[in-house]
């Protein structure tokens, strides 16, 4: 907010804010001041993500009916994080949902929501969530979310036009690939004509495979390695540069409306899980009163 008030364009690290109300204030401020604003979800801009979205749009696996995504770390939480680390400190909006789970939700949204034309995108029609809270601080150490997305399926088809997503995150269960098990899909995108599996970690994948239904073609595996230093943030930076060059206030790859919708989902997940943060960081009052 300080940068927007100073007339600066902003690229803001995910999660955008602590809650959806704060995200709306940022977007409203950027709109009024005619400034560029984007949530920094680097995964959206990877060539792998773009290829997967294009495959879905081009009906490569038919209608997508289910997405399962998991972004988790297998850590000795008490030893590694203690009580003050940002991952478990509620004063810093700690917990796995806002830090890790947002990537699981990113895969649900970029496959079941973002692949539809913008005027056909609808928020989840149902949200069911379960949280396990860290015993030392009360931040979430495990969160599982079940989402139902309405689809654009014609009403004359036999199923009711609902797609499901399961988004998971955990601080004690690893989904990172290792030397003994390099192929470990963190994301499964299941359609009527086949499946796309994306190997983890979900926030920085480098490999996916297309698995058609039996008798409908051959399995295809695609490598998408990171060039150079391997960090991969340049694709996100390139998008910001293009938007600024073209005078855009938001990116089509993650528009303000979608960032807000994802924040609203996380608000509801926290409500169901009983996770609240101190008022000083949930507040929508600006300037903040300390």
From TrEMBL:
The keyword Protease does not apply. Pfam families: GFO_IDH_MocA_C3. Keywords: Oxidoreductase. GO terms for molecular function: oxidoreductase activity. Residues 51-196 form the GFO/IDH/MocA-like oxidoreductase domain. Gene3D superfamilies: Dihydrodipicolinate Reductase, domain 2, NAD(P)-binding Rossmann-like Domain. InterPro entries: Gfo/Idh/MocA_domain, GFO_IDH_MocA-like_dom, NAD(P)-bd_dom_sf. Belongs to the Gfo/Idh/MocA family. This is NAD(P)-binding protein. The lineage of its organism: Eukaryota, Fungi, Dikarya, Ascomycota, Pezizomycotina.
């Amino acid at each position: 907010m300080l940068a927007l008030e100073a007339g600066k364009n902003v690229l803001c690290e995910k999660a955008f804010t602590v809650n959806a109300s704060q995200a709306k204030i940022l977007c409203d401020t950027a709109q009024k001041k005619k400034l560029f604003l984007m949530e920094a979800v680097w995964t959206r801009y990877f060539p792998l993500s773009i290829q997967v979205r294009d495959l879905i749009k081009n009906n490569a696996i038919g209608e997508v009916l289910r997405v399962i995504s998991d972004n988790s770390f297998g850590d000795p939480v008490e030893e590694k994080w203690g009580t003050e680390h940002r991952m478990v400190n509620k004063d810093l909006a700690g917990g796995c949902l806002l830090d890790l789970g947002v990537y699981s939700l990113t895969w649900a949204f970029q496959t079941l929501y973002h692949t539809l034309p913008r005027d056909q995108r609808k928020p989840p029609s149902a949200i069911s969530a379960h949280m396990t809270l860290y015993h030392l601080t009360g931040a979430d150490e495990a969160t599982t979310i079940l989402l139902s997305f309405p689809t654009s399926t014609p009403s004359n088809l036999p199923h009711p036009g609902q797609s499901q997503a399961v988004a998971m995150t955990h601080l004690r269960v690893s989904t990172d690939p290792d030397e003994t098990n390099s192929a470990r899909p963190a994301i499964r995108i299941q359609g009527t004509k086949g499946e796309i599996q994306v190997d983890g970690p979900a926030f920085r994948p480098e490999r996916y495979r297309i698995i058609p239904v039996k008798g409908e073609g051959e399995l295809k595996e695609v490598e998408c390695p990171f060039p150079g230093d391997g960090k991969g943030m340049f694709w996100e930076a390139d998008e910001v540069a293009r938007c600024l060059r073209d005078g855009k206030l938001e990116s089509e790859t993650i528009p303000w409306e979608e960032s807000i919708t994802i924040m609203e989902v996380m608000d509801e997940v926290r409500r169901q899980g009983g996770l609240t943060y101190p008022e000083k960081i949930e507040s929508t009052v600006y300037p903040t009163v300390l």
